[in-house]
């Protein structure tokens, strides 16, 4: 089936219910997706990127992607004909209070040239993009099978050898595939997935202790420490700039 093609990336407001999906499509423009409320992800052939309310997602022109909302989401979209970040891959962007207000204002007044000029200027000055919760997609069916087991049981404690045996391969092969396809080790990928899942649960209103348990941390404090190391703040601030 042909991928939906919308030449001009829209600028505006797109409310989405929890679990809401915008199907796979592409634009000839670049786009920023910012969840003023809730959590939003984009998925491409290369994997999934996720952002809470103090992050935004950069989607380069021509990228086939779909959006998914977690929790009731107030999605703000900014289409850009130029590339102020000089990025040709999806990325997660830190959103300062000023950048947040500019994105919100531009989404509400898309035809205001002054607002857009100021936004572009701030984006050019923005810190380097980050990738704290990028989940690369597996291509090899053995690695994909193991990833599916982790997704089905985020708190599971099976080791790499145990998962490899269940997938009909060896732990050495899986370790090699992880490094080759993901650029990270298996424990690092599992930690990334657990953080992604934690953001989803938090957006849906789960308490921190519940999230820690359901995502495989031994305690709430261990989860909070892991979350802070990656995001620079506690889970309670995940949805605030």
UniProtKB/TrEMBL annotation:
Pfam families: AraC_binding, HTH_18
UniProt KW DNA-binding keyword: yes
Stretches the record annotates as Disordered: 1-20
Provenance organism: Nonomuraea typhae
HTH araC/xylS-type domain mapped to chain residues: 144-241
Record-linked Gene3D superfamilies: Homeodomain-like, Jelly Rolls
InterPro entries from the UniProt entry: AraC-bd, Homeodomain-like_sf, HTH_AraC, RmlC-like_jellyroll, RmlC_Cupin_sf
Keywords in alphabetical order: DNA-binding, Transcription, Transcription regulation
Coiled coil: none
Protein name: AraC family transcriptional regulator
């Amino acid at each position: 089936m042909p991928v939906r093609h919308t030449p001009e990336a829209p600028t505006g407001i797109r409310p989405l219910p929890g679990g809401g999906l915008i199907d796979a499509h592409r634009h000839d423009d670049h786009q920023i997706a910012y969840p003023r409320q809730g959590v939003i992800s984009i998925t491409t052939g290369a994997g999934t990127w996720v952002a809470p309310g103090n992050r935004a997602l950069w989607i380069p022109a021509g990228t086939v992607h779909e959006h998914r909302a977690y929790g009731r989401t107030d999605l703000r979209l900014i289409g850009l004909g130029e590339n102020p970040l000089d990025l040709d891959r999806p990325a997660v962007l830190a959103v300062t209070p000023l950048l947040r207000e500019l994105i919100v204002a531009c989404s509400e007044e898309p035809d205001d040239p002054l607002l857009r000029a100021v936004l572009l200027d701030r984006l050019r000055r923005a810190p380097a993009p980050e990738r704290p919760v990028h989940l690369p997609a597996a291509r090899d069916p053995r690695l994909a099978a193991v990833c599916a087991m982790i997704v089905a049981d985020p708190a599971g404690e099976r080791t790499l050898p145990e998962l490899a045996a269940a997938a009909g391969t060896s732990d050495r092969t899986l370790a090699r595939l992880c490094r080759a396809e993901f650029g990270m080790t298996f424990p690092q990928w599992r930690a990334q997935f657990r953080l992604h899942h934690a953001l989803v649960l938090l957006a849906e209103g789960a308490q921190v202790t519940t999230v820690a348990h359901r995502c495989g941390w031994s305690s709430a404090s261990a989860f909070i420490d892991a979350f802070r190391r990656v995001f620079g703040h506690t889970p309670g601030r995940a949805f605030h700039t």
